[in-house]
Amino acid sequence: MVVLVLTLPQYGLNSLADVFPSLLAGLGVPREVDRLGLELDARRVCVLLIDGLGAEQLAAHAGDAPFLSSAVGRTITAGFPTTTATSLSSLGIGVPPGEHGLVGYLLRVPGQDRLMSPLKWRLFGDGPKVDLLKELAPEQFQPHTTVFERAAADGVAVTHVGPIFQAGSGLTRASFRGSEFRFDVSLGDLIDGTLTALGQGERSLVYAYHADLDTTGHVRGPGSLAWRLELGMVDRTVQAIAERLPKDAALLVTADHGMVAMHDRIDFDTTTALHDGVADLGGEARARHVYTENGAATDVAAAWREVLGANYTVLTRDEAIRDGWFGPTVLTENASRIGDVIAVAGDHGGIIRSAVEPLQSSFLGQHGSLTSAEMHILLLVFRGAQVS
Known about the structure:
This protein is of the alpha/beta class. It is built from 17 helices and 17 strands. The relative contact order is 0.21.
């Protein structure tokens, strides 16, 4: 019998949401707490996030990334779901998903008849063109102050280094506002931009983002030759930054989630036994938000448990909130964004939509669920003048 083992986020103790508040405390920003006990003696700090680099994937391919694999660090958890928009928001705001409200890949939002993609800040599927940046202003959708705003208010020079599509995007405005944005055009430019930003002001905070490992894992599969070669390039990029750090600086390398190869697929679009009572299907293959018709949540959850079997965990919204999946606090305005039913996959399973989501359904690598491979990420620390 298959037993699905869930790895729950360690919010407030050892999670991605705790990284920046801990660093701000080290920089002397008032009312911030070093939740992780990092005790960094640094005036300049950079967090480099490698999208899709799970702790288990790095351990399995240590030979392809010798510099990262030899670094001093620890394992922390992402939040739920283990998806980019949710994780980046937890990182950039310093609170769990239940508080910041970006609780998945595709969400139901008030006033719209289609689901929303926070990552792209637009409505999903066919329909009239909607300028969601105007109709759903990111600063109102996510009103909490970001870690960048809190640092800048205390005089820290704050810079966001990333691809040009992140400049002024809805997700950046929601979760990373308050920084100077510097776009990069290559890995070399990412290195230069990060080091330049670290030299700003008397105290500096830098956030740098790299997406290509995640993209390669989705398309070619985690552990594929293409993925391993990309991991090697990431390894050399981190080494190049670490070797050039100012003496009073620290570099922390982390990720937003891990990834698994998804072999066992259940197609919602052709599995009619999953349709009764379902009004819309959000989330993604390994972590589905099921929005039900009025009063149908209990029946839908029971039907999904029967059809999906023991390799899936299916909870109602209230059960997921009770079990702390989205954090110890879920604000009232955010609860309705969560599916009436949540279904997460174990091992290599997933619920695809071949007709509605053909591209996503074709991906070899996927994430979103609560397995250790997706949940566990590394937090590696490099200090100036430490690397020879």
